Amino acid sequence: MQDDQRGISRALAWFNVSGRKMGSWAFALNRLTGIGLTLYLLLHLGVLTLLVLGEAQWDAFIALARSPLILALDVVLIFGILYHGLNGIRVALVGMGIAVRWQKALFWGLMALGALLLAVSGWLIFTI
Amino acid sequence: MTQGRSGKWQVTFRVFRYKRDAGLARYDTFPLEIGPDETVLDGLEKIWAFQDRSLAFRHACHHASCGTCGMRINGVEKLACIVPVHEVARDGGTVLCEPLRSFPLVSDLVVDVGQFFRRLEEANFEIIRIAEPLPQAQEEALTRFENCIECGLCVSACPVAASDELYLGPATLAASWRMKEEPRSANVPRVLANADQEHGCWRCHAAFECSEVCPSNVDPAAAIMALRRELLKRKLFRRSDNAG
Fold first, then answer.
1. CA–CA min distance B202, chain A (Å)
2. Residues 6+ apart with CB under 8 A from B47
3. Per-residue confidence (pLDDT) for residue B188, from 0 to 100
4. Least CB-CB distance to B209: which of A11, A20, A101?
5. The CATH number of the domain where B141 resides is what?
6. Closest Cβ opposite residue A100 in set B74, B163, B225
7. So what's the pLDDT on residue B125?
8. For chain B, what is the domain count?
C-alpha cells in the first residue's frame, strides 16, 4: 500500500511543470497523451465487441458516434495521436544523437505541422 | 529597473521544514526585511541568525563554486547563493524554499547526497590537474564537463529521476561521456558498460530540464545524447570498446 502511494507520488512528479521550460511540458504532455491513447485503445476494443451483439446495437452506437460531442472527442483523439507521434519523432531523433542542438526548433516545427494537420482533421471530421 | 529596488523589501520566506524526530513535514513562514539584491541564501542566513536557529540548510562558498546550496526556489532548482531576491519575488511577495527532489531528505533543506557522489565515482570522474593540460583540440568541449560543480540540481529537475530512484542521473551520465572523450586513466569499457544499462542513459526521455537548470552550463542532456549515439554506433557496427 505504501509502495503504491510512493509510486503514484513519483508518477505525479512527471506532471509538476510549474516554472519549468518547454522540455518538461513536452515530457508531461507526452506521458499524458500516452496514457490517454492506451485508455482509448481499451475503449475502442470494448466498443468493437458491440459487433457481436447484432446490427441494431451497432447502428445505435454509430448514431451516437455522429453526435457533435463525440465528434469533438474525435478531435481530441487526433490531437493525442498527432502530439504523441510527432513529439515521439523528436525524442527518437534526439535520443540517437541527431539534431540535439536544434531540438527546440525541431519540437516547434513538428508542433506547427501537428497544428496544421489537426486543423485539417477537425474540418474533415465535422464536414464529411 | 533599479528604481523601486533601492532600500529594503518586505519578503516572506516560506520554507519547507522536516525533522526526522518530529515526523510530518510542514512549511514555516518567516517575514524578512531584505534588500532586493541580496540573495536567497542571505535571507536564509538571516532567518537562521535572528529567527530560528533550528533551520538546516547547506552552504559554503557563496559564489556558485561549491554546489552545496542547491535547492528548489519557487519550484525550480537554483543555487541559493546566486539568486537575488528580486529575481524570485517582489516587494511584499513570497519566496518558496524547498529541498532538492529525488534525494533522501535529511532535515529541512538538507538532502543526503551520498548516493549521488557514489554514482559519480562509478563514472571514474577525475579531477584533472593543471600539470596535465587537456588536449588543445578538445579543450572547449571538455571544459564544459569539467565545470560541473556536482550540485545535484540536474538530478532534482529530471522527471525521470523523480520516478526511478536507480536512474544514474544526468550528472553521472555527463561525467561518463566526459571520461569517454578524454579518459586519462579511466577504464572506458567499464564506464560505458555502467551507462549502458536499464537505469542508465537509455532511461532519459529528453525533457532537457537538466540542462535548463544547470548553473555551470554543463549541458548534461547533450552529453547523454552523445553517449547514446556512441553506444548505438558500437552496437550497430560492433565496434570494440577500445576503439575511438
1. 8
2. B13, B15, B30, B32, B55
3. 86
4. A20
5. 1.10.1060.10
6. B225
7. 65
8. 2
